[in-house]
């Protein structure tokens, strides 16, 4: 009998090893972490991403908005709860490879039929001389039970490590959200300053056009011009007065959007727009591309997701191997409460080991294994795409900063030339040496150039914000 049990055990182990050898082969893919040596700019290891956002932005009103948003923004708070969920997942995975121990108390009642096998046995057994088993038979138990799956193939430990990497990925995801939030508030704030300046320029231009309209009316009364110039100048004034309300609507929407990001109901945004055109972007040091791997939270998030996916493949592979579980219990068991805590007669203990190898559902295990590998390959591509996008964003903004600087310098000269041309054209018109349309078109061109100048300054400030974000600064 003993020999047959040994043979049965070796037969089971042999079948398990044979089935383990049937693990399907998969194609492994390794991520490419190489990046270009430099951007399209002089190489410098100094990196603006290391600068804290409080030191990067010098506007106190903007800094208050950012600081409030980091505390109250709902999306950030949602992500914080996702991080808590990921942290709890680590605890759950850790508990899976520790022994599971519980204690229980139970009671039951059992009545066997007299003409059944067990009933016939009970009928002929005596507890003591002249005393038979009670009928029905009670069953009382108090015992501690333990079960433990021995983590031979590191399946459970790898699952715990995978949960750890996903927790770290969620933390990096929050950091990435912080950089986006700071950049979005800063860009919206500069847009608000630009709208304020455009509204002020429009008001001053309306004053100039109203003065011109007054002169044309006087010319009309003196019979020097016809009714047509009067109507043309009047229409131009009305058009720009109407244009004010479109800007006011954009100001309201931008203020409301900033308030939404800050996590509060609409209210006026404190700001100082007087010196907007005098704002000078800080000098930016882009460093070297390799620093993106440490500074960009989205790259670090993709890297953690990739490490988790690699471990998931190992976990899926471990499902092909036999699992070994140990179970045991210790306590007291009796049919009568008077005998329940009586040693050693009522002592109960069990100890068992179980080796389990999946045989029937191997197609499901193979599918799970192949899916885990496909997700790992997907994570590799996502990591490489994230690195490529990060490099592209920095490269774009490096060029953008340079182009916006040159464009702004030229726009300043254009505005200066057109502003002077307004006085020239007005003087020529008053001396009947220029047509009224020349005055009107000069005023239009000057207004458009001033608007373009403000837009270029806003784009210049946005480029500074965007490259700070692209480098991974702010978190």
UniProtKB/TrEMBL annotation:
One Pfam family cited in the UniProt record for this chain: OEP
Membrane topology: Lipid-anchor
Primary localisation category: membrane
SUPFAM superfamilies attached to this UniProt entry: Outer membrane efflux proteins (OEP)
GO MF annotation: an example: efflux transmembrane transporter activity
Keywords: Lipoprotein, Membrane, Palmitate, Transmembrane, Transmembrane beta strand
Compartments, as annotated in UniProt: Cell membrane
GO CC field: plasma membrane
InterPro entries on file: MdtP/NodT-like, OMP_efflux
NCBIfam families documented for this protein: outer_NodT
Protein family: Belongs to the outer membrane factor (OMF) (TC 1.B.17) family.
Name the UniProt record assigns to this protein: NodT family RND efflux system
Species for this entry: Sporocytophaga myxococcoides
